[in-house]
User: What shape does this take?
Amino acid sequence: MEHRNQARRGREYQEQKQLFAWTRQPSIRSRWPELKLLHHIKNEDRQATAAAIAIDKAAGVKKGVPDLCLPVARGGWHGLYIEMKAPGGRPTQEQLWWLEELMKQGYYAAICCGWEAATITLSDYLGGEILRDE
Assistant: This one.
């Protein structure tokens, strides 16, 4: 089971790399220069030593925080958070909790399975197609 989790995390990393490569394309960046603000949030590293986990936890790293943040307001939302998953991946209960709480605070939060899904979410969000019901 642990080997499968490591492989999935590796696939998620590759998907995230593909997404950031997409955001750096001149045609995409000229359309949405705000993508320069898209960044990865350090998550809890399950492969780290107990000491490293304790250091991260003391510094504020929390389990379940979404992978990506775009601090750009659109459509009545304060910003966008994305939980990246490899195709076929599923969110944890902690991740679902974070997404729900972020939505309550006025952030749009989405789970994207694969980099292509994330490009659609980013395009829709930045294009103002994802509107907040108030």
